[in-house]
Amino acid sequence: MSQTNILLEAGTNELEIVEFYLEEPPVEGGTEESDYRGYYGVNVAKVLEISRMPKVTELPEVQHPAVLGAFNLRSHIVPLVDLSLWLGKEHVQNEEAPKVIVTEFNSVTTAFRVSGVNRIHRISWEEVEPPNRYVSTVSKNTVTGVVKLEGRIVFLLDLEKIVADLNPSLGLRLDEALDWGSEVRYRALVADDSTLIREMLKDLLQKANFEVEVVPNGREAWERICELKAKAESEGKRLTDYVQVLVTDIEMPSMDGHNLCKRVKDDPSMRNLPVLLFSSLITDKQRHKGVSVGADDQVSKPEVTYLAKRAYTLIGERKKEGLM
User: Fold this and answer.
1) What distance in Å separates the CA atoms of residue 41 and residue 313, rounded to the nearest whole number?
2) CA 304 – CA 281 distance, rounded (Å)
3) β-strand 186-191 against 152-157: which pairing, if any?
4) CA-to-CA distance for 25 and 22, rounded, in angstroms?
């Protein structure tokens, strides 16, 4: 598999994806030549390694047939998920040995069995289109984007949703025992390409006493902030009179969170708006990217309670400094 060997900078609205494929049965009524190969992709930042199929030990009381078992990876027990079975497809074995893509996000390591791996591509998020309703439905809402590469249609998979569905304890959660107060209700703009996460974040942040507006990607968040900036200027006010915090995912079609953050922080009339990156990509290895684009803080999913606390703290600091 070819590598780009060039460090991907933050804020350029680019990403690198590992392209892999799943072999599927012949089309009904077709011939052997009618075999279908589906192409998929995952962000390189989530991939630890790609290896051959390891020796797998079955797990007791498996909740889903797609979980094949677990294997030992450098003294770590890693669960193995068959992507074909998860997507409701029949597993087809071709002449090549299957590959295993080992991923790490949300501080969880998971491996996925695929038929084969092609290469790494560097693309712009502007090339990625959001999935239509049909694609989302048939993929169990695990496709977050669609991109054309070398004449092939490649589906970008939301592996974190798969992992969260297999282990609900890894989903978003808010400590509802906390008293968030009711004297002041701040306004938050939230950008996330996952419909499920957008609605969950909206609901959870509302419980933390925020008024919440949600948008599906960085492009729409940027356009909304520009609208509020124009309104503020026309009324002789500040942007932060209309929105007090921006919460954004990193991986999103059209414009990613790093590029969105950089645009906000590069604009003198916007830079006082606190920007919180909320993503499964935030790890010790990746945190420097958020720092480089000026993010005020970075919170790894699914820690919504910490996200809300940091939002309140940052807003309070801005108000104390007279910047809001």
Assistant:
1) 37
2) 15
3) unpaired
4) 10
Nearest to 77 by CA among 63, 51, 58, 93: 58
Q: Which whole number is the average pLDDT over 39-50?
A: 92
Distance CA 112, CA 78 (A): 10
Instruction: Count helices and strands (H / E) in the chain.
Output: 8, 15
- Verify cis geometry, omega within 30 degrees of 0, for the bond prior to 130: no
* Local structure of 99: helix, strand or coil: strand
Q: Which residues pair with 122 in a beta bridge?
A: 16
Q: What is the Cβ-side half-sphere exposure of residue 244, based on CA atoms within 13 angstroms? A: 20
What single DSSP character describes residue 276? E
Distance (Å, whole) CA 324 – CA 292 = 24
Taking phi over 0 as left and psi of -120 to 50 as alpha, with beta for the rest, 247 belongs to: beta
Please report, rounded to a whole number, the percentage of residues in the chain having pLDDT higher than 90: 47
Q: How many residues does the chain have?
A: 324
Distance (Å) of CA 192 to CA 280, 319, 321: 12, 27, 30
pLDDT of residue 294: 93
**pLDDT number for residue 311:** 93
Given a cut of 60, is residue 33 above it in pLDDT? no
Q: pLDDT band at residue 2, thresholds of 50, 70 and 90? A: very low
Site of tokens 């025992």: 177
13: left (phi over 0), alpha (psi -120 to 50) or beta: left
Note the pLDDT of residue 6. 43
What is d(CA 251, CA 229) in angstroms, rounded to the nearest whole number?
25
Contact of 95 with 81, CB cutoff 8 Å: no
Task: List, as one string, the DSSP characters of 172-205.
Answer: -B--TTS---SS--EEEEEE-S-HHHHHHHHHHH
Cα–Cα dist 125/120, whole Å: 15
User: Scanning the structure block, which residue is given the tokens 């003198």?
Assistant: 268
